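We now fix the convention by which a protein and its fold are recorded. Here is one such record, which you should read through line by line:

>
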Amino acid sequence: MSIMSANHLTKIFQNHTVVDDLSFTLETGKCVALLGPNGAGKTTTLRMLAGFIKPSQGNIQFDEEQFTKDIRHYVGYLPQYPVFHNWMTGEEFLIYVGQLAYLSKNDAKTKAQELLDLVRLGDDKQKRIGKYSGGMKQRLGIAQALMHDPQLIILDEPVSSLDPIGRREVLNLIRELKKDATILFSTHILNDAEEVSDDILLLNHGKLLKQGAIHEIHSQQETKTIYLAFQDEPKFIEERLKEINSVFNIKRENAGFAITVHDVNEARSQLLEVIQSEGWNLTKFEVLTSSLEDIFIKAVTE
């Protein structure tokens, strides 16, 4: 079920098209990574989806409604560089945010405590925000994005400025949140996208290059390459392997051979049969697959 649809979203600043005719949907309960190099249009896209800037063209729909309410009613948003009142405590800040979202002070306090516990800041709620670490501030920022019970949580580069400990804290929180929420987050750290997201949207120069489930995109980009290594390189191995009808190309790579094949399953059986019949001492047999980084680089450089 779709929670949000972006239809032909375009944003032009001073005759420069930053976002160019984007159309995609976000499915309920999914965690989606918005990927792209610097300048791809990620932040502008998120700010349109969050209702902070209006598209030059196109529209956004939530629950099959097109702007029947302020779009921010549906969205919780964490900017890349959140700003806090450092003299406030974590609890005071969330109560303040809750009242801005038209909660009563009592309701805001109850909600603040619930969220502070969720983001593991319950023991630090009376600490001044100025004393928080970077990871603690990002988790507090995620809590403020949840104060009005949004349908969609949008996080702009939530881990880009954090040290390894803070990054791990935020990724673990995203992993927990995605059990009960729909999340869209931008990142240029591809390992993070693979670790916590279900789907990806890949932008470059404002255009949507790829979208879909990560496992489907991996399958579409399968390299059909098998890597073989041997304890002692057999004589005439290349000539023998070239006789196998599933083998398309053989390339020496490191201490072994990268073999491009027509069909992985057929080639696996034929290669193993030849290796066994020849008595070759095989030390490594690996079917190579494209990483998300491989897919990313190929998409943005084509």
Observations:
- The longest helix spans residues 264-278.
